[in-house]
Amino acid sequence: MAERIEVFDRQLLRQRRERAVDTLPEFDFLFREVAARLVDRLEDIRRDFTVALDLGCHNGVVANEAARLPAAKIGTLFQADISPRMAAAAQDDTGLQRSWRTKRPCRSAMAVSI
Description:
By secondary structure, the chain is of the alpha/beta class. The chain is built from five helices and three strands, in the order H-H-H-E-H-E-H-E. It has a single domain (10-111), classed as 3-Layer(aba) Sandwich (Rossmann fold), CATH 3.40.50.150. It is 42% helix and 16% strand. A three-stranded parallel β-sheet has the order 1-2-3. Helix 5 links the parallel strand 2 and strand 3 (106-108).
């Protein structure tokens, strides 16, 4: 039987994201654009979501865009990233742990069990 193939080097990805945390806001224009389009499409969907997961949340751009949605549209938004520093940056940038709408934890993606 063949050895297990690792498509993604998780340690390398984590190292790259850890390094990118401090400068990401200067270069996240594509993430912001994609987040805006995603939230725009969520507005068109008639149902509400009790739970949503932003896996690979970077610095919280999806959560920042989702803040303009009605409170009932997304009940709980979980943010997770393979980089603990990136997840912490998402929490700091969005303030979601302290949100009046709901508590939305920011965690390491490695700790998320799906």
